[in-house]
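[AMINO ACID CHAIN]
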Amino acid sequence: MSYYAEPITRLLEELERLPGIGPKSAQRLAFHILKGDDAAAGRLADAIVEVKQRIHFCSRCFNFAAEELCEYCADSERDSSVIVVVEEPRDVVAVERTGEFRGLYHVLQGAISPMDGIGPEQLRVHELIDRLADGTVTEVVAATNPNVEGETTALYLARLIKPLGVKVTRIASGLPVGGDLEYADEVTLGRALEARREM
């Protein structure tokens, strides 16, 4: 038995399907929508419909795009000799926020995970190799997540790309700014020591 009218129950069910949204969060969001004015609910609905209709994957790097190419691939000012390889489109935003990188991207659409049945064939690896064929790219930076799947993916890419004569680098991982050494695990602290640089 539902405690709410059918339209509210349906809204709650749809909100709970979203990642990270449990029953309480769904309830909070639903009541926020109900309390708001009709215009606000319409804008939210329109934004959802528009993003589903207009956004697709970039034909070159597989980032999200509104046109054929994403804004990074379409920008002729970016350094086309360096490609940062990431797992998901949200990782592109994380790298861009640093303000430190002016090259191009390649989004794999995941990471190698045999437990989940994801191998290189399910990722955009073939398309990455195709991008390296013309000799423009001199370095590929593996910026996959620092977990088992990300490390496996980075190692696989390195073995595949190095024979092509393209330099393969890996982003450093280590201690976060503001962190204390005593709370760092051994693997993180070990990586921080390995990636040390001269001051």
Summary: The mean pLDDT is 92.
